[in-house]
Batch of 2 targets.
Target 1
Amino acid sequence: MSNEAEALLKLQFDKYAKFIDDEVWAEVEGYYHPSGVLVHKGKEAVYGNKDKSTYIAKFAEGTGKSVGTTTNAKYEGSGDYLIITADFSSETEKAGTVKGRFVQI
């Protein structure tokens, strides 16, 4: 399933990441499920596609223009649940390099 999941997700995820780099928040919002939840582990969570894109836009406002890269991506899942797990690194104007790991279902 991982090859199939990658075939289905990689192009979509690359487009999504480009919209974040370019700060096209209306397009970013379209990638989220209306009932989805974004969890910033140990800090907070936001519910719904509009609130998730607003949360990311607010973060971007604080860090300035950024260019992100994703490494160690692992694609998996079954049926309606496709999952990408990866490391990210963003070079930002105001906060330097921001690194982390994410799971997106």
Target 2
Amino acid sequence: GFTNKERGKAVRKILREKGFEKPLKGKCEICGGFFQELDKWSEKIVKETRGIEFESFVIGTVMSSELIRKEESLWEETGIEYCESFKAEANREIGKKMEKKLGKKADKQNPTLTIILDLEEKKIRLEIKPVFIYGEYQKLVRGIPQTKWDKYPITVEDIIAECALKRIPGDSHAFHGCGREDIDARCLDWRPFVFEIKNPKKRHTDLKSLEKEINKSKKIKVRDLVFCDKNKVIEVKSAKPDKTYRVLAEFEKPVKNLEKLKTLKGIIIKQRTPSRVLHRRADKLREKRVKNIKWKVITNKKCEFIIRAEAGLYIKELITGDKGRTKPSVSEILENPAKVLELDVIKIHTEEI
């Protein structure tokens, strides 16, 4: 088909032949000569995108308030019902030029890079699609949180970010985990996660090599790293697999009548938000099921428990009772106050999701 420029040229030719066309002088009263400056804008885009890795792009235009006013005024004065907007024409014409200059395809549905022409500010803005990396991690030591926390100098997220951002530089990053373990707990099974790099300058790296680099830390291990999209974040965050835990607990008095704990299997535990996290979480009642519980006596006051429970059950409070905020609890059933010495996540039942 014809471009708007070609259509306009044909219309002017007919008008000229009929003696209706007036000579054109100066810049267009509507766009201020924008379409005569497409090459200048194209060069700006080439300069701004230099050094950025991307597969596809889309052009967007932010019109100045003056341009919007003039365009709407023209529509009203002429009574035009069917026309193409300035923005649509600008986006298409710049897009065609940039396909040739950049050697990349325009893609309105799923662009890697959004190039915005801000006519109000007379500048180019870039919005780069984030890079998402899916994987699974183990936390091999106690005392580090999963995500960034001012109180702690190192986190699972930090260890991954330090290695990943060397290869794929970006403005910032985010960590999306399938649940999280306590800071003082280890995670000995593989927990799914997605690592997100925002406004990345690169998009590709050898993920097997990245795995090896991360695993040098000895504090965590990762495996099965693959590039993914934002949908994987939703999938990972919405998954609620059961967890199996190993708990080492110490009681105030010698332990007896452990058979009573069989009553916990299959029942619903009612938990108010634990007192240890009340300062940062809403106080509400949660109801979660214990799927299974086993125990082994270590000393007359120490026991090891293997507990399978629904996602979201606070395991420490299942042992201690949290001064009555969790009912029933191991301490309550045995009538023997207990404290947790060690906690490990030993199985994340993702295979059953």
